[in-house]
Amino acid sequence: MDLSGVASALLARLPELGERMAQRIRAEVDAYQDASLIPFDSLRRSCTANADLILSHFHTADAPEPSPARETGRIRAEQGMPLADTLHAYRIGFELLWSEFIAEARTHPEVTDAQLVSQSAEIWALFGRYAEAVAAAHRETSAELTLQREARRSALVEALFTGVISDRTTLWEAARELGLPEQGPYAVAVAVADAPGEEPLAGIEAALRQAQLPSAWRLLPDQQIGVVALATPTAESTCLRTLRRARARVGVSPGFPSLRDVPQALRFARLALAGLPGTGPGVARFDDNLLAMVVAAAPAEAAHLTEVVLKPVFDLPAAERARLLTTLEHWFAAAGSAAEAARTLFVHPNTVRYRLRRIEELTGRALSDPRAVADLGAALLAVRNHSAGQGESLA
What we know:
By secondary structure, the protein is an alpha+beta fold. It is built from 16 helices and 5 strands.
């Protein structure tokens, strides 16, 4: 079946066909109407190349060559055009070309209607093959661009946390690319990863975005770290609720005004995490227990403090030591109320008072003396931080 004459006639009109196809697509596909996204010259060149591809196939009977179709898919992905709109435009171009093919065939007496009907199956088979090439190239390019964006974003977040970016202009550019406001307040959050490469806060960026809280995150071997914009008075409480739902161990820094302060805020968030009691999930703010943060910030000094203040207690047999330290912790948690401490310990208040007197005798520090209470409280925090770091109980 020879349709080369029809194809040859249309090839002679190729520039005009490319122009008309581009105009039709521009008119019928909303996404293509933005000239800043898809310049008309780019669209016309693509239409002309694809029309040439199809007509040349009928003119020379060569095997289909999908390169122009793949190029269309690649370019549209780079321009940010969704795949569905790209394929819609491609179909419109094909339909116009086939209409022109039929119209031109009417001027060739040697071409019968039966031949055109038979040929329609081939042209739509070609459309399917080229559309697949467009889609495959679009997906491949989109995946490459996504990886590039993620790598770029990860590098920018890393630069913020390490303090590599300090110039105001560069900070503004980084904020814009990361989707963060130029000015704070911000907060930094740090979560413990159970295994290398595992996200303890999986999906956190999307969850915060849904709550109107822009953020940027980076996964380290042992932690997931992120900076969150807190633009409204209720933003911090919303952020904390979102973090708690993740059921991870998280430390949160105080708020700060400039992205220049991210490295220091990261340190504060890690100190808050180090001071988080127990071993289960929870969220600790740096500002919730400032004394605990001071103790966590100076581990060597804290160890010395423990030795000086609590050594006589630690010299006791393990069971007695555990009872005394646990009682002291409950007493502090009860704001100095022996009755409340007894309630949480499930013992009689006199039992709590006896144990507290025993601590006073061993340490030589009276719990009626504020300075002695401060020493014991700081030493107890140091013990708890050390035990948490070793994966042990307080006792």
